[in-house]
Structure formats: C-alpha cells, structure tokens
# Entry
Amino acid sequence: MEKHEKTGLILTGGGARAAYQAGVLHAILRILHDAGMRPGRTPFDIICGTSAGALNATALACRADNFASAVRGLLAVWENVATHTVYRADSLAVLRSGARWLSLLSFGALLRKWRAAPPDSLLDNTPLAGLLHRVLDLPRLDAALGDGALHALAITASSYTSGQHLTFYQSAARVEPWTRHGRQALATQIGVEHLLASSAIPFIFPAVPLYLGGRREYCGDGSMRQQAPIAPAIHLGATRVLVVGAGRMSEAGPDAEGAGTGNGGYPNMAQVAGHALSSIFIDSLAADIERLQRINDTLGRLAPEARAGLGLRDVKLLVIAPSERLDTIAARHSASLPAPVRALLGALGALESRGAALASYLLFEAGYTRELIRLGERDTLARRGDVLAFFAS
# Structure
C-alpha cells in the first residue's frame, strides 16, 4: 500500500554553494542516528533539485536504498572537488571562452565583421559531464523507484527557446503531468543531459539542447523563472517538505546575501552579476516559502468543512539555510582558484570583496567547499529539535 504521508526534499541551486547541502544532509544523518531512527533507506520519499542542487538530488536518489552511503558519496565529491573537474581552467580554455566573451562585449561589431564564432559562455563546463558519469549510477535510480525506496525524483530547467520553466520528473507510480502559467512538468527518464541543463548558470555555462516532443529546445539553469520552487514536491504528493537554501534569506538592505560590501561606489561588473545570480537563486525561494507559510496559516484558521472544498492541504515545512554570508567565505578562498580563472574573474572585479558573490558560485575548490560543508553541519545540528520534530511521525 502506498504511503499517505510523503516527505519531500528541496535542494536549491547555487553552483559551488551546493556543498553546503552535503553538510546539512550529513548532520541530518547524525541526528536521526543519535535519536535511534537509523534510517536504512532515504527518509525522503520525493527528492527535487535545481541547478547544482539537481546534481545532489540525483546522487541521493540513485542511492535511495542506503541513505548513509548516499551522504558519504556526496561528502566525498564535495570535499575533494577541484575547479578543473567542473569547468576547464587552463589558459587556452579560458582564452577561448572567457577572454573571447569579454572581447565580444567590447569589440562585438568588429568580431562580427571577422565572422569569428562567438563563444557560448564565459566558461567551458565540458568536464562536468565526465564527473557526473563517474559519480552517478543512474540504473540504480530505476531500481530505487521500482522497489519503493523512492517515490519520485524531479529536476528543473528553464527553456531559452520556449520561455517555459520545465520540471522533469521520474516516478514508478503514475503521476499526471501538471501545467501552470509559464511552467510545465514532463515525465521522462532523467539523464545527465537534464542535469547539465539544470545546472547551466546563465552566461557562465553554455545552454544544453534537449529534445522535447520532437523539438529541440536550448535549456539553462532551472532557477531562472522558477516562481514556485517548492511546487514540484507538492504536486508529486509531499505532505511535508525540507528545503535547503543556498544563501541567507532573512536580511534586507545592504547586508543581504549577494549585495557585496564596499564604500557605496559604483558597482563593478562582478557585483552586478553576483546580485543578479543571488536574485535568481535566492529570492524566488524566499517568496515561495512565504507563500506556503501564508497558505498554512490560512488553512489553520478554517474549519475542516471549509477547508475541504479548497483543494489545498497543509504542508509541514522546515527550511535550513546558511547562517553566514557565503560571499564572505568565498572571499577568503578566492586565491585557491587556478591562475587563469583568477585573471578572468579579476578582470570582472570578482576578487574584490564587493564582487565576491560571483566567485562564491564558481569556487569549486576543496578549501571553500569543506568550509561550506562544516557550516551546513553546524547550522543543522543547532536545529536538532526542529529536525527531530519534522521527522517525528
């Protein structure tokens, strides 16, 4: 018999910031183990991921039959990651992509006269495909869904071609696709190409062609135009949802995540880019959390008979997000980037404190990601009571 209560996990985007999620999950494993729960299978029935969170989500889903093994695998990847395993960081590659891209901005008309092929993105993330093939065992996903260790996996992307926000989902049970304004869900066999599309940070990494209904659509990061990040888990049947964010969501004003620091001078290009990325990765999540909390509050004030005809249900929610600014942490580790990447980001102003938000998404170096993992562990252990209450039933 299918479980009535289903627990969903939402892993958001954020490039290298997604290392924080590995720390959160490791702490959850510790908390459940210490409480005597000792889960064998994953405690999450529905796992949803966006951007770099999609990579973590799929890794967890592939090993849904063994939660401890899945978490250890994520830790091993993030604790030992290096820039060259995610995007090309050698001088030739940076010149071919980043330097040509900046030149195109400055001398676009001249380059067009030369008929030079414009670069697709600031950086070449070809190595990421190889990393995903090495660390993911996608056939195990089919097995996990087939034997009931997992109800569903959902990955989101955004189509540059159609303008639609796309949710790709895979489930052993029949789940009818849903459509909302600007959003479309598609049942499919999830593969590496969906993960590359979901994690293609705009301008930074190239768009990925996906064939949808016989039509080729170029897709990018799923955080773009994502009006309701929590919605896929609810559509798939989640009655309680754990959300792991990629940046602090409680501030306002100049100290907010991604706003950078400085003396109030004119913003450099990296500061503007970091602000834009933080808007993409953080703001829609914060708005959706507020929306869900308002719905829960409204439903709690209604009599059961009044709630019955609304087609809405109360969804238990727990949000864990960084307690420290990740761009501040990134600023301490920017020197660990390969020299060609430092030169490129330096030209944009990303090595200055006010532009460090951009670097925080691209700093795939072990010193930085290990600090994010430890932060995720501390933040989650500090909320042990909330975690236990969330999993209480």
Remarks:
- DSSP finds 15 helices and ten strands in the chain.
- The longest strand covers residues 152-159.
- Confidence is low (pLDDT under 50) at residues 251-255.
